[in-house]
Amino acid sequence: MTVIDNHDALGKDTSLILSEAGARDFFELLKPRVMSLVVFTALAGLVLAPGHINPVLAIISILCIAVGAGASGALNMWYDADIDAVMTRTAKRPIPDGRIKPQEALAFGLTLSAFSVAILGLAVNWFAAGLLAFTIFFYAVVYTMWLKRSTPQNIVIGGAAGAFPPMLGWACVTGGVSLDSVILFMITFLWTPPHFWALALFKMRDYGSVGVPMMPNVVGERSTKRQMFVYTLLTMAVAVAPAFTGLASIGYGIFAGILSLIFTWYSVLVLRMPDGDEKMLPAKKMFFYSIFYLFAIFSALMADHLAANLMHLFGGAA
Predict the structure, then answer these.
(1) Domain that holds residue 210
(2) What does the DSSP assignment read for 161-211?
C-alpha cells in the first residue's frame, strides 16, 4: 500500500491510503473480453451504416465506445465487489483480490464515462454521445444496481445494454437510428438470454451462493432450457432478417441460417440434458459456441457488405 501524507492548515492528518495497483489491474477493471465484443459489434454497425464517415472520426468513435464499455465494466465491478468475492468465477477480480480499492474503481469508472461521452459528442455527434451515456447508465444502474439482484429477468432486460453497440456505431455515421440498426440491436438482444443462461446452468451454485436470482436458480433447469430454446429460435429469425431488408444478400441469409441451425441444435442438446447433470457438457458447449456465433454473424454481415461494395465499384468501372 502507498500512503500519501498530507496535513491541512490546522495540522490535521489527512493521509490518503492508495492501493499499489498497476496499469494491468485497471485494464482488468474494463472487462477486456466483454469490451472486445462491444468494439466488434460497434464496428459492424459503423461499417454497415449508410453514408460515409471520416476515418479519423471512425477511429475516435470506436475508441469512445470502447472506453464507455470499459467504464461500465469498472462501475459494475465496483458495485458487485461483495458478491464477486464469494463467486469462484470472479473472486480474483481486482477489487475482491485487494489489488484495487473500491473508491478507486468508482472514480475510474465515472471519469472514463464522462470522458468517452464528452469526446464522442464533441468530435462525432451528440445523438451518438447521448446513446452512449444511456448505455452506460443502463448497464451500471438499471442492470447492475437494480435488475441483477431483483429479478430472474435480469439478463433479458439488462441484455439491452450489450445490444446497443451496433446501434451506437450506426448512430456515429448517420446521427440517428433506423430499422436496420434496430435489427442489429435485436440480434444481440435475443442472443443474450440463451448465451448467459447456458453459463448460469453450469454456474448455478455460484449464483445461488450470493443470492443472484438467475433463471435456473429461480424457475428451475427445465423451464430455463425451454426458454433458451425459444430465444434461440427468435435469434435465428432476426439473424436472417438482414437478407430480407436489403441490408445483406441472400448469400448472407443462407450462411446465417446455417449458423443459427447449429445454435438451435446446441439448444436442443441442452433441452435434452437431464436436470441435475453435474458435468453440464451441452450447456458448456452451447455457451462457447454462442460466442463464436455472434462474432460469425457480424463478421458475415461486414464481409457481405464489403463484397457488395466491391461488386458495385468494379461493376461501375466496367
Answers:
(1) 178-311
(2) HHHHHHHHHHHHHHSS--HHHHHHHHHHHHHHHHHHHHHHHHTHHHHHHHT
Amino acid at residue number 8: D
Give yes or no: residues 84 and 170 share one domain.
yes
Same domain, 56 and 184: no
* Number of structural domains found in the chain: 2
CA–CA gap between residue 234 and residue 238 (Å, rounded): 6
Do residues 101 and 187 share a domain? no
Q: Can you give the pLDDT of all 318 residues of the chain as single tens digits?
A: 444 444 443 444 333 455 677 889 999 999 998 899 999 999 999 999 999 999 999 999 999 999 999 999 999 999 999 999 998 889 999 999 999 999 999 999 999 999 999 999 999 999 999 999 999 999 999 999 999 999 999 999 999 999 999 999 999 999 999 999 999 999 999 999 999 999 999 888 888 888 889 999 999 999 999 999 999 999 999 999 999 999 999 999 999 999 999 999 999 999 999 988 778 899 999 999 999 999 999 999 999 999 998 887 776 554
Considering the domain architecture, whether residues 196 and 62 belong to the same structural domain is answered as: no
Q: Give residue 53's identity as a one-letter amino acid code.
A: I
Cell readout for 311 is 461488386
Work out the angle at residue 69's Cα, subtended by the Cα atoms of residues 66 and 70, and round it to the nearest 5 degrees: 85
Q: Which amino acid is at 288?
A: F
Residues 61/49, Cβ–Cβ less than 8 Å: no
